[in-house]
Amino acid sequence: MSDGIFDVAVIGAGASGLMLAAELDMGYSSGVVLEGTSSIGTKLLMSGGGRCNITHGGSIKDFISAYGEAGAKLRRCLYRHNNQELVSWLEGVGVQTTEEDGRIFPTSMKARDVIDALVEEAASNMWQIETDAKVSALEKEEDGSWSIELKDRGWISARNLVIASGGITYPETGSDGSMLEILKGLGVGVTETRPALAPIFVKDYPYEELAGISVSDVEVTMKAARMRGDILFTHEGFSGPAILNISKFAEKGGLMKIDYGKSLEELPKRMQRVMRDRARGDSGDVRTKLLESLLRSDEFEIEGVSERGMVTSGGVMLDEMDMSSMRCKSADGLYIIGEALDADGITGGYNLQMCWSTARCSADDLRERLGR
Ligand SMILES: Cc1cc2nc3c(=O)[nH]c(=O)nc-3n(C[C@H](O)[C@H](O)[C@H](O)COP(=O)(O)OP(=O)(O)OC[C@H]3O[C@@H](n4cnc5c(N)ncnc54)[C@H](O)[C@@H]3O)c2cc1C
C-alpha cells in the first residue's frame, strides 16, 4: 500500500463502501477501500438468501415510513438518489433487474453479479481495494488529515475518511461493531445497538412441531408497535416478515399478541390440531371460548430476539450528520454511510436502498470536495 496520503479512505467493503467506490471516479486523486476481512461484500452476498433484494419498487415517497422515525431524516438523501435511479444505474453497469411482488432483484437472482459489477466500476474509477486491512484506531491530525491504524500493518493517512463498516449482527462477516466503538472514542454520538429483523423467542413456545409452517396476513402487537403480515413457525420461535419487522420493539418480559384473523378451519391442518390441544377445558363451552381467544389474541411473554438479526437497530446518531452530504458535523472530512447509521428499515429491499442512497450522496459531496 502507498506510503503517501490518500485523498479518500473508505472503511468497509460492503454494500455502502463498494457503491461509493463504484460511483466516485477518483481520476488523479487516490482512493483506498480498507476491508478488515479476507473477502469483500460478504453480507451483501447473503442478502435475500443469495438472491439480493436490491430495493423496492414503486414511488420513493412510500419508502419513508419503512424506516420509522429515521424516515423523515433520510428523506432528502433517498429522494436525491432513489430506487428508480438505482435501477437505471445498475442496468447501465450491466445488472438487469426484475420486480417480484414489489421487491427488486437482479434478474440473474445472484447477489454475486451485483458485487462483481460494483467491483468492476470501482476498479475503473481507480480505487484500490485492500483486504485483511482491519482498522484498529483513528486519529485526527493537526493538519486536518486522518491517521488510520491497520491491525498488524501500521499506520496510513487520508485527507477524507468514509465509515462504511456496517452494524453488529453476523460478526463473522466482519461487521462486528468495532468501528462504532472507535467512533465513540472520537466523541461521535452512537445510540445503543441491538439486532433487528430477527426471529423472536417466547416463554413456553407451543409451536415447535409446526416448524416450517407459515400463516398469512396476521396482526402482531407489542406495547410499542403493531405489524401486519405473514408469520413463520420455527423450531425455536417465531419468524416471518411480520415478526422480523416488529422484532426491534421486542422487550424481554414484554407481551406479544398474535391475532390470526381467521377461523380455526382456515388455519393450516397441523396447526388446527395444536390449537385444539391448547384449548383443552372442562366443558365444550370453555373449550370454544379458549379457542376463540387463542385465535384472536394468542399471547406470549417475550424471552428475547435472536442475535442473528438481518440488520442493526442503533448506530451513529442521525442528528450528528448532515443528511444531504453524509458528513459528520463534529469532525471535518469524516463521512458515515450505510448500516453504521442509526437507521434501519423493514424487509423488502429498504435496508440496501438506504446503503445505496447514503453512499451516492457522500460520493456527490466528495466529488465536489476533490474538485472533480
Ligand atoms: C442474512 C441477511 C439477509 C439480508 N437480506 C437483505 C435483502 O435482501 N435486502 C436488503 O435490503 N437488506 C438485506 N439485508 C441487510 C443488508 O444486507 C445490510 O443492511 C447491508 O449489507 C449493509 O451494508 P453496509 O455496507 O452498510 O455494511 P456491511 O455489508 O456489513 O459491510 C461492512 C464492511 O465493513 C467491514 N468492517 C467492519 N469493521 C471494520 C474495521 N474496523 N476495519 C475494516 N473493515 C471493517 C466489514 O468486514 C464489512 O465487510 C440482509 C442482511 C442479512 C444478514
State the total count of DSSP E strands.
20
Count of structural domains: 2
Distance between the termini: 24 Å
What low-confidence regions span 5 or more consecutive residues with pLDDT below 50?
none
SSE arrangement:
Blueprint (H helix, E strand, L loop, with lengths): L4 E7 L3 H9 L7 E4 L7 H5 L8 E2 L14 H10 L2 H10 L4 E4 L2 E4 L4 H14 L2 E4 L4 E6 L5 E5 L3 E10 L14 H8 L8 E3 L3 E3 L11 E9 L2 E9 L4 E2 L1 H6 L8 E5 L9 H10 L5 H13 L1 E8 L5 E3 L7 E2 L4 E2 L5 E3 L13 H20 L3
Parallel strand pairs: 1-2, 1-9, 2-6, 9-20
Antiparallel strand pairs: 3-5, 4-5, 7-8, 8-9, 10-17, 11-16, 12-13, 12-15, 13-14, 15-16, 18-19
Helix pairs in contact: 1-5, 1-10, 3-10
The structure holds flavin-adenine dinucleotide (FAD).
Short description:
By secondary structure, the chain is of the alpha+beta class. It has helices spanning 15-23, 42-46, 71-80, 83-92, 111-124, 178-185, 241-246, 269-278, 284-296, 350-369; strands at residues 5-11, 31-34, 55-56, 97-100, 103-106, 127-130, 135-140, 146-150, 154-163, 194-196, 200-202, 214-222, 225-233, 238-239, 255-259, 298-305, 311-313, 321-322, 327-328, 334-336. 28% of the residues lie in helices and 26% in strands.
Descriptive overview:
- With 372 residues, the chain is α+β, with helices and mostly antiparallel strands.
- It folds into 2 domains: 250 residues, FAD/NAD(P)-binding domain (3-Layer(bba) Sandwich), CATH 3.50.50; 107 residues, Translation factors (Elongation Factor Tu (Ef-tu), domain 3, Beta Barrel).
- 28% of the residues lie in helices and 26% in strands.
- The chain is built from 10 helices and 20 strands.
- Strands 1, 2, 6, 7, 8, 9 and 20 form a 7-stranded mixed β-sheet that branches. The protein has a 6-stranded antiparallel β-sheet with strand order 11-16-15-12-13-14. It has a 3-stranded antiparallel β-sheet with strand order 3-5-4.
- Helix 1 crosses helix 5, helix 1 packs across helix 10 and helix 3 packs across helix 10.
- The structure holds flavin-adenine dinucleotide.
- The site of flavin-adenine dinucleotide (FAD) has 38 residues, from helix 1, helix 2, helix 6 and helix 10.
- Flavin-adenine dinucleotide binds next to helix 1, helix 2, helix 6 and helix 10.
